[in-house]
F-actin-capping protein subunit beta (Pseudolycoriella hygida), 617 residues
Amino acid sequence: MTKRYTILLTWFVNFNYTHYLTSGGNIPLLYCIIKYIKARSEAQKMNTTTFIPFSNAQIPTIPTTDGSKLLLTSLTTIAAKYNVDNFSPVTLSPHWSRLARLLLISFLSVIGSVGNVFMISSVMVEDHLKKAGNTFIVNVALADLLITSILMPCSTIVLLAGMEEPLSVCRVQWFFAACAFVITVLSLASTAIENYFRLCTPQDGNSWFNKSTTTTVILIIWSVGIIASGMQYSLNLSFDFCTRKSNGDFTYQATVIGLLLMLPLCFTFYTHMRIIRDVKRFTKTPNFRPSLNYTWDLSLARTNFYSFLIFIAFWLPFGIVLSYHTTADVANKVFYSTAWIGLSELQMDCALDLMRRLPPQQIEKNLIDLIDLVPGLCEDLLSSVDQPLKIAKDRESGKDYLLCDYNRDGDSYRSPWSNTYEPPLEDGSMPSERLRKLEIEANLAFDQYREMYYEGGVSSVYLWDLDHGFAGVILIKKAGDGSKKIKGCWDSIHVVEVQEKSSGRTAHYKLTSTTMLWLQTNKIGSGTMNLGGSLTRQVEQDASINESSPHIANIGRMVEDMENKIRSTLNEIYFGKTKDIGNGLRSIQSLDDQRQQVGMKMELAAALERRNVRGDN
C-alpha cells in the first residue's frame, strides 16, 4: 500500500512540474488525476499497474510493477501526444493564433522591405552618397531583402494555406537566411575598410575602392555567400537548422565559422576602433580643418558602426543558444525564437528611417501610429525620436518657455524663468544653486541670440547636474506667421554635455544638435508646395575656461557654428535639390508666356537671318 501511494505521489509531482512548464496548461490536470486514480483501482484487481491515457483516445496498456518505468512512460507519451515542444521554425509557436502570426510576419516583411528600399534610394538620390564605396551599404540592404521579400512571405503563404509546413520550405528559408547572413557580415567588413580608407588615408590619388574594384568585391561576396549556403543546403555538411541535427563534421564547421563569421566580425570591430582613434588624432592637430564632405563621411561611418553593433546585438542570442545546443538540449521555442529575433533586426532601424522621412509637423501622429503597430518599440521610439517643441507661459513672469523631455518631471514642466513646475510638483528635480545661476545667465544670453538671428520666436535653456560636470539643452522655436503666403516652423534642439577637467581650466564639450524644419508655400506660379525634414549633427571639442571665455561663451560659439552649418546644408542641398527637381518636373511660367517667348525667339532669328542675307548681297 505504501509503495503504491509513493508511486502515485512521485508521478503527481513530476507531472505537475512537466504540465505547467511544457504544456502551457493545455491538459486538464484534475481530470488526469481523477482518471489515473480510477484506473489504479481497476488495475488493482488485476494485480498490475497500467498507464492511463489523458484523453478519450485508447492507448494500449503497459503492464509494469516499476514506478520509475511508469513515470518515464507517462512523460514520454505525454510529450509525444501533445507536442509540448513543437515550436515551428517556419510559422512560430502554434499556441499563438494563426491571425496574430500572420499579421506579425507580414508586418515585419512589409516594414523591412520598405526600409531597405528607402536605404537603396537614399544612396542613389543623395549626391554626397553617390560614391563607389557606399555600394556596400546597398549590398547590405539587398541581402536583407532576401529575408523580407522571400523568407518571410514563404511563412505567410504557409499560414494562409493552413497546411503543415513541409521540411523543404524550412530548408529553403534556412538557405536564404544563411546566405543573407554571410553576405551581410562580409559587406559590413568591406564597409568598415572603405570608411577607413576614406577618412584616415590621404585622398590625393585615385581611391582604391573605385567602380571596378567595388564591383569585383561585391561579386566575390555574393559568390561566397551562395556557395557556402548552397553546400550546406545540398550536401548537409553542417548543422541542420530545421531538424536540429548535426553530422559532426567539426573541421568544416570550425572552418566556416572562423573564416566567414568570427574573422570578419572581429576585423570589422577593430577597423571601426581604428577609425575612431585616428579621426580623434587628426581632429586635434592645429592645422586640421574638416570639409563639409569629410563631416558627412564621418557621420556616415558612425552610422555604419551603430548598424554593425545592432546587427551583433540581434544575432548574439541565437549564436549563444546555437553554441549551447552543441553541449546541451535547448527547447525549440528558445532556439527558433532567437533566430527570428536576428531576422527582424531591421525593425527598429526601419521605424526610425520612416520617421526621418515623414513630415515633421505630423511627428506626434506618425509616432502614435508606429507605436500602435509595434508596441514593443514604444520606449525606444520615444527616447530616440525628437518631437516638435511646445510653448507654455510662465505664470509669475508672463514669459513664454518651451516644453520638452528635459524639463519634464512626471506630468509637470519646469519654467526656466521662475524655476517652478506647472502643474505644481513638490519633489521635482532642480539644478544646484551654482548651476541655477548659470542657467539664468544662459537663458538671457540665448534670448538675445534668438532675437538677433531669428527676429522672434521662443528660446529656453535647461541645465542639470552630472557626476563630473553638467549637461543642458538649448531650445529654439520660430513659427512662421503666414505672411507672404509662407507657413512653416523651425525647431532647434541642442543637447550639450560638459565634463570639467581636474585642473579646472579646461572642459570637454559634446554637442548634439537636431533641427526640424517644415515649410509650406502657396503661390500662383508653383501652387502649394510642402517641404520638411530633420537633420542631426554632433561635434566634440575641448576649450579653456576663464573670465573671458566662460561656459556660456564656449557653448554659444558651438551652437552658433552648428546652426550655421545646418542652415548651409539645408540651403545648398535640400532646398537646392528640391528646386532642381521642381524645375525639372514642371514649368513655373504659364503656357501663354512660354508661347510668347518662343514667338519672340523665332522673330529675332528671322530678323537676324534677313539681315545677314542683305549683308551678303
